[in-house]
Fold:
Amino acid sequence: MNTQRFTIKSQELLADMQDLASGYGHREIKDLHLLQAMLSRRKVTIQPALEKLEVSIPKVKSDVENALNKLPKIRVEVHSSIYLREFWTYCIRRRRQTSFRMIIFL
Structure:
């Protein structure tokens, strides 16, 4: 996967997702890791969007954390052993970055 084609913010989110997966002991990166990474960044517009919808940010953060804790864990020592979920790999290979960018920059 050539991440050089992504924007800087997208690259940073991918790195955050990988760090989260590694920190939780997960072998693959899932959508929950993306949501957690987006919730932890102040400059990503997901929090204002959720607030506009009157969604409780602390509740979402708690639910995401609980869901991440329930995923199977393995001992991960090297970042390269963490894999993107098939859906993400498919989107990246097909260069469907538009939808990924829309999520990040809405």
In short: The radius of gyration is 14 Å. The chain has a mean pLDDT of 77. Residues 8-24 form the longest helix (17 residues).
